[in-house]
């Protein structure tokens, strides 16, 4: 099972440097020679998951169709989770209650959405004749794949709630204000024992009122709240502003059809995205750092979606920062990669990556 931040810019190669060099060179050669966008996998037929992440069989939905977007949908505005009002909280609770009540055979259930995320990372999908499994982390597909995963998660909740205005909230962990409770694990996701937003596998040191540690390597820290506010601000500034002035630095290394993934995360994917995952996961779980800290189970925790809602938001903000290169990659292997998801009706939909960066289309 893959752990967040197993690779990345912050990790020193302490052994096998020669082996790593050979691997990197062969990766670069593969990138030069492969050069085609990732085609849409056939779900669940392409599944090779050894972690039991395959989607329900047989597939009972309509034949997979190309995503078109629905311009008749209302524009949804995502709000900070610590500022939701009572009716918004009740709606969110009800949505996750309905989601958790879906049967195991429904590909929209919370556990099957987690399985879909698992499939796209933990060696779950091998294309015919390919040496490496498809991987959507640690390179430039990370941000767009997760944006669309969230899009369908939001649409599934909206359908269950019969409310097309439903929008996911975002966990505003980048906000270090001492007068707001933005940078703690959201209370509505953590403090009520009967809440449908809770998850039992979490780090005991990630409970409110402890502040998030954006430089976390998992587990606890003895830093004070003031120290954490300063360090968190520094992390945001170096990872999003000074350390990521180009698409390659922010999104990560190129990834084409058939490549081995996992060697080139962008600054943002690594930290704070990966560090927040690790901070929330339970270091003492049977599989250390479950649920949030492992690819295979992270999307079982409802906080995953509010965390990634903030990732999506910061991606949008990054594009507005000064500098002429704060744009999405323009290579066809990026723009024309295609992914298969399940929509709010449990039908398979194939999305072209260029649609994912077209936010008006996503409403
Ligand atoms: Cu992920």
Automatic annotation (TrEMBL):
InterPro entries assigned to the protein according to its UniProt record, in alphabetical order: Di-copper_centre_dom_sf, Polyphenol_oxidase_cen, Tyrosinase/Hemocyanin, Tyrosinase_Cu-bd
Lineage: Eukaryota, Viridiplantae, Streptophyta, Embryophyta, Bryophyta
PANTHER family noted in UniProt: SHKT DOMAIN-CONTAINING PROTEIN (PTHR11474:SF76), TYROSINASE FAMILY MEMBER (PTHR11474)
Organism: Physcomitrium patens
Annotated family: Belongs to the tyrosinase family.
Signal listed as a keyword: yes
Signal peptide coordinates: 1-35
Protein name: Tyrosinase copper-binding domain-containing protein
Keywords linked to the UniProt accession: Copper, Metal-binding, Oxidoreductase, Signal
């Amino acid at each position: 099972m893959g752990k967040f931040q197993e690779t990345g810019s912050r990790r020193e190669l302490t052994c096998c440097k020669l082996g790593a060099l050979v691997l990197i060179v062969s990766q670069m050669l593969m990138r030069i020679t492969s050069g085609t966008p990732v085609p849409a996998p056939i779900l669940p037929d392409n599944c090779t998951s050894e972690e039991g992440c395959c989607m329900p069989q047989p597939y009972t939905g309509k034949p997979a169709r190309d995503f078109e977007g629905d311009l008749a949908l209302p524009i949804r505005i995502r709000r900070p989770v610590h500022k939701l009002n009572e009716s918004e909280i009740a709606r969110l609770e009800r949505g996750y209650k309905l989601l958790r009540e879906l049967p195991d055979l429904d590909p929209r259930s919370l556990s099957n959405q987690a399985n879909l995320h698992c499939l796209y990372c933990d060696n779950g999908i091998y294309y015919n004749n390919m040496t490496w499994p498809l991987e959507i982390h640690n390179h430039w597909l990370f941000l767009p794949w997760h944006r669309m995963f969230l899009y369908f998660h939001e649409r599934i909740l909206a359908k269950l709630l019969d409310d097309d205005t439903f929008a996911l909230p975002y966990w505003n962990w980048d906000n270090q204000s001492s007068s707001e409770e933005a940078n703690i694990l959201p209370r509505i996701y953590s403090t009520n024992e009967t809440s449908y937003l809770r998850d039992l596998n979490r780090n005991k040191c990630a409970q409110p009122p402890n502040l998030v540690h954006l430089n976390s390597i998992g587990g606890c820290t003895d830093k004070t709240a003031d120290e954490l506010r300063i360090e968190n601000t520094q992390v945001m500034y170096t990872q999003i502003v000074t350390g990521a002035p180009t698409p390659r630095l922010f999104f990560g290394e190129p990834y084409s059809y058939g490549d081995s993934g996992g060697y080139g995360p962008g600054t943002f994917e690594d930290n704070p995205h990966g560090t927040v995952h690790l901070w929330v996961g339970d270091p003492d779980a049977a599989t250390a750092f479950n649920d949030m800290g492992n690819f295979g189970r992270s999307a079982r925790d409802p906080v995953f979606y509010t965390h990634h809602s903030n990732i999506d938001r910061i991606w949008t903000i990054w594009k507005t920062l000064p500098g002429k290169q704060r744009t999405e990659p323009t290579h066809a292997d990026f723009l024309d990669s295609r992914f298969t998801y399940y929509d709010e009706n449990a039908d398979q939909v194939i999305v072209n990556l260029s649609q994912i960066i077209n936010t008006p289309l996503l409403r």
